[in-house]
Amino acid sequence: MKLYDYQLDAIHKMKNGCILCGGVGSGKSLTALSYYYLEQGGSESYITGGAFKPMVNDRVQDLYIITTARKRDTKEWEGELIPFLSPHDKFKVVIDSWNNIGKYTDVTGAFFIFDEQRVVGSGAWVKSFLKIARGNNWILLSATPGDCWQDYIPVFLANGFYRNITEFKREHIVYSRFCTKFPKIDRYINIGRLIRLRNSILVEMDYNRTATRHEITIDVPYDVTSYKYVMKNRWDIYNDEPIVDAAGLCRVLRKIVNTDDSRVVHILSLIEKQPKVIIFYNYDYELEILINMAESNALTYAQWNGHKHQEIPDSDHWVYLVQYTAGAEGWNCIQTDTIIFYSQNYSYKIMEQAMGRIDRLNTPYTDLYYYHLKSKSSIDLAINKALITKKKFNEGKFANCF
Description:
Elements: H1 5-13, E1 19-21, H2 28-39, H3 44-47, E2 63-67, H4 69-74, H5 76-81, E3 93-97, E4 111-114, H6 124-134, E5 137-142, H7 153-158, H8 165-172, E6 173-175, E7 185-188, H9 191-201, E8 202-204, E9 212-219, H10 224-233, E10 235-236, E11 241-242, H11 246-258, H12 262-273, E12 276-281, H13 284-296, E13 301-304, E14 318-323, H14 324-327, E15 338-341, H15 348-355, E16 367-374, H16 378-388, H17 395-398
Helix pairs in contact: 1-2, 10-11
């Protein structure tokens, strides 16, 4: 086994409590396992191309990998682990999802790899993470480690930089003086210390992509008359009832925009040029449109969503329909160079993860193509603006708090 130079450089910078940051497809899993292997007495000559040598510490730490449910179910981590294991190993390996992190809060003296990090905020996952961090060695893996300083609070606490969240807020957060329903951060202070702390734990992988990404926007029309009617009257034209909140307004507007027949026409045109295509979508009604498109045109297709977990078809021509929430992470495909985004997701992180499904180290393609179907409607423009600034689309702000 031989790691890339940028992976070896990252390993030499890693330490307990660090965040290994690398783009989707950069090989973070393999790098993290190599770090664990070396920490447990493995030989660096092995990860640079030499013969395998098993870990020889007197007591190799049990390995716990907390990852997404999909990565756990597809056994992706088991495949990555194979090069590091020998028949004589006696340590335990546990791979589970973030949903079950609470089961491991009593574990001590082990090594934890937290994959696709979810330690943001102050919920149950963060509380469990902090308990685990106190009595174990650990590292975090992330493609997008944090959009603001608040995202780093759990990791700062786990590293002992602050005693609790109250201390962090007292030293770094100034709240707005204006009356709002909830406390609103006006600005951060003592930024220099925050930058130093972040830099001390953030290990970035200097990954030069082997393929070039090409993002192409395809302008599609929409029913302007219905759109204006809903915006003016706040009326759900599908259920014939008043719209009661911002989420409901956005949901109806998106359905008007996303059900325009022109989207299917453009997809069929793209499929004529590329016989193997992945299509990401958001809503069930979009799935119905795409299934009808595939069946009406005798296209071989498969699905990955909350209803069905099918594998990519084994044929020369196929369409793979993937729902963002269910399939934006935890799998990869090097049999195609094309992804079509039927509609935009609200989250920049999810969009980036979705693009990474075909942007892998071992892709045989030098160019990758991403087609975004977008209208000139105000909601599509607002979502696109949020994604460009790497923020999550705010329905309440768009609807002017209704």
